[in-house]
Structure formats: structure tokens, C-alpha cells
Amino acid sequence: MYRRWPVVRQIKLLVVRFLRLRGAPEEIAKGLALGIFIGLTPTFGFQMVLAVFLAIMLRENKVAAVLGVWVTNPLTAPFIYALEYESGRILLNMDYVHMPASLSFSALKELGWDVLLPLSVGSLLWAVLCSMAIYLAAIRIIPVTQTWKIPRWPRRPRRRREKDS
What is the DSSP string of 111-154? Predict the structure, then answer.
């Protein structure tokens, strides 16, 4: 039943592609850690481009880097960035940001700096911690997953049309 659902099939295909990545386990783990690091920084809009560029420059696995960036997707990004902002705000001993009374450009510009600084500090902290943890976990898990044989989903038999005589 669930095999007919396109979302489930797409998720399985992404997992299979990740598990079938070619390359040394260290190279894949470094690419994944690089992607996680970039995904946790506030580089909205060009995270994948940045991940591929840095993976090319550092000669790491580009696919793993792009897959790592997806740690911040539309479902997880609000929670991740809220955690990073709060962590940075606590580390910098800053007060909460209050919305300005008028939405003028100068008010939004000032608000942007009060949000961006704690977000950047918190994101660097979490990016370093999470990328190191992912690297250490991946370097041990990847050699095991490379030996797995993942079966194909059974295909439904095609119905043959009977020709009208």
C-alpha cells in the first residue's frame, strides 16, 4: 500500500542514493560534515551552491555535502534558527529583540543587526558541534552501510491490454 505513495518512494530513493555513494568513507563523512556545517549557518538561499563550491575546493564528496545541507529544510529551519538565535543571545548576554513600533527601513535595519549577530554566533557554535558529531558518527557508520545490499521494490505486473478482434 505505502509503496504507491510518491513521497515514501522519494524518501526511499534519497536514502538509497545516500547509502550507495561511492568513495572513501572519510571523504563521504567530510562532505556530509561540510554540508551540515553550511546548513546550520544563516546562509539562506545559496547553501547548496556554497556546499558544492566548498566541496570542490576541499575535494570532498559533493553529493554528501548537498545532502548535509538539507538538515535545514522548510520544516526544520524555524526550530534550528530559533535555537541558534537563543544560544547566541545567551552567549552574548543580549536582551530579547522587540518589534519596532513603525516598520521603517532604518528600524528594520537596526532590528536586523540585533537578530543577525546572535544568530551568527549561535549558528557557528551549533555548526561546529553538529558537524564534528556527524563526522565522528558517519566515519563509523558509512563502512557498514556500504556493505548493505538494498533490494529493489517489487514492481507491479503490467496489465496487458487485450486486443479487440
Answer: HHHHHHHHHHHHHHHHHHHHHHHHHHHHHHHHHHHTT--PPPPP
* Rounded-to-integer distance, Cα 54 and Cα 5, Å: 35
Task: Cite the DSSP H helix spans in the chain.
Answer: 6-19, 25-39, 47-58, 62-69, 77-91, 105-145
Indicate the SS3 state at residue 110: helix
Map out the domains of the chain as residue ranges: 16-145
What pTM value is reported for the model?
0.75
Cα(107)–Cα(128) distance, integer angstroms: 32
In Å, what is the CA distance from 24 to each residue of 33, 66, 87, 150? 14, 17, 35, 19
* pLDDT tens, residue by residue, 29-77: 999 999 999 999 988 889 999 999 999 999 988 888 988 898 888 888 8
**How far is it, in rounded angstroms, from Cα 116 to Cα 122?**
10
